[in-house]
Prior knowledge:
The complex is a heterodimer. Helix content of chain A is 23%, strand content 49%. By secondary structure, chain A is of the alpha+beta class. Chain A has a domain at 113-172 and 221-523: Porin, CATH 2.40.160.10. Chain A has a 16-stranded antiparallel β-barrel. A three-stranded antiparallel beta sheet of chain A has the order 6-5-7, with no helix packed on it. Chain A starts with 5 loop residues before the first helix and ends with a strand. The model of chain A is unreliable at 36-47 (pLDDT under 50). Chain B is α/β, with parallel strands linked by helices. Chain B has a single domain, classed as Periplasmic binding protein-like II (D-Maltodextrin-Binding Protein, domain 2). Chain B is 43% helix and 19% strand. Chain B has a five-stranded mixed beta sheet, sandwiched between helices. Chain B has a two-stranded antiparallel ribbon with strand order 2-3. In chain B, strand 2 and strand 3 form a beta hairpin. The longest helix of chain B is centred in the first third of the chain and has 23 residues, at 2-24. Classes of the chains: A alpha+beta, B alpha/beta. Chains A and B meet through helix 1, strand 1, strand 3 and strand 10 of A and helix 1, helix 2, helix 4, strand 5 and helix 5 of B.
Amino acid sequence: MKTIELKTILFSMLTIVFFAVNAVAQEAEKTNVTDSNAKGNNTAMSAKTDAGTATAANATVAERLEALQAKVEAQEEQIKTLSQQQQMAKEDRDDLSMQVMEANAAAADEKFTISGFLDLSHTASFAKYDDAITYYYQPKYNSFYQTGVNLYLKSQMTETLSALVETRFSYSPNGNITNKSQVTRVDGVETARTGDPDPNKGFERTDTYAKYQFEGGTRLGGVNIERAHLDWKPRDWFGIRAGRYLTPFGIWNEDHGSPVVLTVALPFLISWDVVPTAQTGLMVFGSIFPTDLLKLEYAVTLSNGRGPTENFFDTDHNKAIGLRTKIQVAGEDWLISLGGYGYYGKYTDIETEMITEYRIDETGTQVLDDVNYDLAQRSNDVITDKHKEYIGTVDLKLNWKGLTLFGEAGARKSEYLVRPETVSYGTTIWAADFITNSAYGMLAYQLPLEKVFDTLTITPFVGVDYLDLSDANDTSKFGIYRFGINIKPSPYVTLKANAYRVDSLGEGVDEKTWFVKSQVAVSF
Amino acid sequence: MDTDFYRKTIGGLLLASCVLLFSQSPVMAESPNDLLIIVNKKFEYSSLTITEVKRIFRKEMTTYKGTSVKPIHAKMGSPLRDIFVSKVLGMNVSAEQKYWQDMMVKKGMRPPSELSNTVRGVFSAPGAMSYCFRRDFSPITAKIVLEL
């Protein structure tokens, strides 16, 4: 910092005064000497005056010549300087051209970018019972798996206008289990056999194998649009997003990519879609920076809400609304962040049908009945499922130096307006209202290795996770205890090794199953 | 005699002030290696805090009091970039790379564009903000908003 302190001023002033006094003293001494010499010299000077007058004219010409020569030399010097400056200007112009080219290249580079990430994971499980209920929800077999490749296309069209598309190329829907059998036994005798989620079907798995014309074949994959939106953001505190966007709740959902998140497996809150992870519609968002320490964020969401086709089409008039707020206080090596998201929407599933009304006229011919009906031919939506969703989440993050404590909690209440039916063995079962709860907490510490390794970061962690899928069902409660390590040997590569134990907490299913998962994730 | 008296007195005071000055804290003189945060001359504000600069270079803040701001980095691997990242962003270059890889995954964001001559970059782009050493700064081409 270059602040001029008071003592610096004092020092400077004293220096000036010191030299001033010195100068005055020396001048005074000189004056004394000059006065005594002057008295002796007066007589000699008057004798020389006449001779000086005679040579004055010659001296003036010589002086003029000398002055003229000096002027010429000065001008030559000036020309030389100007010439040098011209040369420098030329070099500057060339340099500037290079800079403009470089700047244009940089601007183009920032204007449109392609990037992405992919990962490969491995899972292994260790259960006390080989037929543990955990395996209904979690993978049982020792396996490598790859969920897909995420590709980002980002364009910054103008300073305020941008677009982002994130697609996920995946092997899905091949291998997707679309329906699982659920068998009920009483005293060892099967009393009901239904399916999940379709109670009228048994086990079903999608196979996308496509045979070639002559021999061989291939399994087709799919493309999932994770998000695709246009942003107009004229100010930091105000922006509008239109399209499909990640729901702005919590920590994990927006981080979402395997190279960024700490663990291999997602927390229940995310993997069980307690909150819709993405929505289609509009979002108004912004950040405010009241002080150097404080940052406030908000987002208001308006979307189709959840539904069978909500990512491109709504099946009711109702629009889901949501509000996100977040407060963040941060210093040089610490951070406190607290956020919340509230959501209300309606899930509606419909089956659309066409009705045509006929009547028999006086001649006995069947004709459209435009007498008894305003619309003899019309459409009709049969609602098979309609329920309200009330969702609330909170998230907290504390960071101090390399230590981070973070967690999220969320709850969803589903309240039926039209209950879907389940028919099994002649019995109709109606879906009940239910509440889903989930929460997780994690503690991580990034080891202080900056001074030893330039690029390597190592972050061990521990955590807990809880899920109660439905308060109407006692068997769907789970807890997870996890620990592991996250290693980044370079900014582009993440290695993870996790172990976690899943505890089935429901009545009559006291199980504890260990899983070991590892992953290599790469962003590019 | 009077002159001699004043010389001795002021000389003594000067000596004392020297002792006072240099014994307590060093004089923070301007150095050619000072890091300067510079903006385009059309930028209407004359000073920013280090936190504001940090937010701008992390692209958390894209406007400053309604004025659009475009950060320009020095080339990766240059001493200037290293010093800026350390002093302003509070991290090393590798951690900064990691930060931007993470931001790419989270929000599709990319780091600020890079130029080898940041002063020229600021000169030619309205709303541009960058940094340079004092020895490379010219008041004709840019305006200083923070000195470090």
